[in-house]
Amino acid sequence: MSRTTPKREGISNENEIKLFLHCGQCVEEAISKGVSPADYQSIEAGWTPIGLQVWCKRHDKNIIHIDFQGQQLPANTTIKKDDQER
Ligand SMILES: [Zn+2]
After folding, report:
1. Distance from Cα 32 to the centre of ligand 1, integer Å
2. Which among 16, 27, 54, 72 is least surrounded, fewest beta carbons within 10 Å?
3. How far is the centre of ligand 1, averaged over its atoms, from the C-alpha of 38 (Å)?
């Protein structure tokens, strides 16, 4: 499925994540194994018929499924200029 999103100035392509999405089961297992939950979890994200979903591949479970309710939201799909030169 392809989806076009309107581009909007002012949306950064830097990593501005302040709070990570995670699978609760992965976090519990990572803590019990003494490893980083961020390194332990295995997730994928993608478009669905209604929006965007983040899925735990390790446990084959939904983490979050966002319904855009038919709206097309602005997005930045570019990469940083220095990343393009590598
Ligand atoms: Zn998981």
Report:
1. 14
2. 16
3. 11
Query: What is d(CA 31, CA 65) in angstroms, rounded to the nearest whole number?
Result: 25
Higher pLDDT residue, 20 or 84?
A: 20
Average pLDDT, the chain: 88
- CA 37 – CA 16 distance, rounded (Å): 19
The 10s digit of each residue's pLDDT in 28-51 is 999 999 999 989 999 999 999 999
Residues in CB range of 42: below 8 A, 6 or more apart: 26, 56, 57, 58
Interacting residues of 65 by C-beta distance below 8 A, sequence separation 6+: 48, 50, 51, 52, 53, 54
CA of residue 50 to ligand 1 center, whole Å: 23
